[in-house]
Amino acid sequence: MLQGTASDVGKSIVTTALCRIFVQDGLRPAPYKSQNMALNSYVTMEGKEIGRAQGVQAEACGIVATTDMNPILIKPVKDMHSQIVIHGVPEMQMSAMDYRNQFLPKAKEIVLDALNRLRQEYDVVVMEGAGSPAEINLKDRDIVNMNLAGWADAPVILIADIDRGGVFASLVGTLELLEPHEVKRIKGFIINKFRGDVELLKPGLDWLEERTGIPVLGVLPYIQDMRIEAEDSVVLDELQYRRQVEREIDIVVIRYPRISNFTDFDALSWESDVVVRYVNSVQELGSPDVIILPGTKDTISDLQFLRDRGLDQAILDHVNNRGVQLVGVCGGYQMLGEWLNDPHAVEGNVMEAKGLGLLPITTTFLQKKRTVRVRGQLSSKHPLLMNQSEATMPLIEAYEIHMGVTERTDAGEELEYRPIFHLEEDRSRSDRNVSSLAHEEGLANGDGSVWGTYLHGLFDNDQLRRMWLDGIRLKKGLNPLAHTFKAQDRKYEEFDRVADIVRNHLDMKRVYEIINGNQSFFGSE
Fold first, then answer.
1. Residue pLDDT, tens place only, 385-402
2. What contacts 486, CB < 8 A, 6 or more positions away?
3. CA-based, 20 to 30 A from 143: which of 7, 58, 118, 225?
4. CA of 262: how far to CAs of 75, 114, 128, 220, in Å?
């Protein structure tokens, strides 16, 4: 089990890297996080929702993700209230206090049943903790850190982030707040995100080992430009304030408070002619070519955030007067419409809100969530600005996660507004008639300058991504690019790159000994 001295110390990335290393070494690993709080979701092949980190880790393992890898997902809806997703299905909304007092006492069976199924199927289960195991106000009902390690009888490696400072204090302080039996479970330290000369750090490492009796298994370097999908919006702090290189296409993503699934735009940022900027104020907008309204866990509240900051009027000015393309994805798509209705208080206490009024749609939030993988292609009459020199219509694969149902309000007048995609649900279950599920999805205005879709992962489709970007280039008087990259290949190359870095800076022999109780994992080898 990998635990951390705090949130965002790199637990998810180290878990991903170790999963990949174990695959490279001929084992069958699986990731596991009993309880995850995240707004970035992943849809399994069965149409169930888990934390994005566990889905990505399953990909690093080369296996199909299941809800056993993240049996409990907590999705914050508003301050102190969250949606509770159990084995991929939203079951309830609860306050933090009710979750602690009513749900946690019965959660042990859920998380252990899932873990035991994974242990029966795989050689190694790499368990990831959450936050810090030393949150003394939460320890008595912990189901994700030391209590879980004890239930599973799992050895623990403790990770600390040296980049934020105070690494020795954070490690020693964590130990001081743990019970003696919990400290005994910690078999090694990993110091993460180091930028300096390890020789200068060595006296501190020697002191730490002498002070605690626990070995330092490795000092991992700060990995620049890492392209493994992030779990938490904390990573956007760095992206938002990083100095951006000027490139031909400038894409702005609005960062509202409850932004979700922002990994939708990772592949765009990997293109050589694109810069993707995350902004949350009018002053940061600049002069983009495209503005994207991303997904959100609370559409109405984040729409109000736009209005409170004057971003709504600034966005409308860019679209109407400066020729900027506006794209809405999921919650952002809902914002583009005329009205948002919440009769069941799914998102909060506001029952009705006026949208931006750019597309003739109305969204009603329902109590049942739609989570499904889909496949299809561009609609034959789509109006998007694209490089139409492509010989074939691009096939696409994507997924949907949303509570709202969106309907057109213009009686289907297709001359001015047209659907974008023709899709089928990507289901393998024999009881579903896939052909009957074909449907049109998304909507755009007549010139494609404003469009919206529920599809997540859309820009991971290589041909579609490049056709769309080249359409923007043509509008600017630039020639299309002759090539792009394969997002799927890039993802696995990054798994291997990060795994190699971790392997080169981590004592893997000791890691294997820890896994197998100080015995050689490979027997005589």
1. 898 766 677 899 999 999
2. 462
3. 58
4. 15, 28, 22, 26
**Predicted model pTM:** 0.86
pLDDT at 468: 96
**Catalytic site residue from 87, 382, 422, 456:** 456
Q: Would residue 330 show up in a list of annotated catalytic residues for this protein? A: yes
Taking the mean position of all CA atoms in its chain, how far away is CA 365?
23
Residue ranges of domains in the chain, CATH in brackets:
2-227+492-515 (3.40.50.300), 249-477 (3.40.50.880)
Active site residue 382: no
Least confident of 76-80, 213-217, 271-275, 447-451: 76-80
Task: Check 19, 61, 87, 330 and give the catalytic one.
Answer: 330
CA dist., res. 71 & res. 107, Å (int): 10
Lowest-confidence pick of 148-162, 277-291, 337-351, 466-480: 337-351
Is 214:186 a contact under the CB 8 Å cutoff?
A: yes
The per-residue pLDDT for range 35-74, each reduced to its tens digit, is: 999 888 899 999 999 999 999 999 999 999 999 999 999 9
DSSP secondary structure string for all residues of 32-95: E-SEEE-S-EEE-TTS-EEEHHHHHHHHHHTS---GGGSSEEEEEEETTEEEEEETTEEEEEEE
**Structure token pair of residue 387:** 């490089």
Strand order in the sheet with 249-254: 274-279, 249-254, 290-293, 325-329, 450-453, 443-445, 417-418
Residues 6 or more apart whose CB falls under 8 angstroms from that of 428 comprise 45
Phi-psi region of 434 (alpha: psi -120 to 50; beta: other; left: phi over 0): alpha
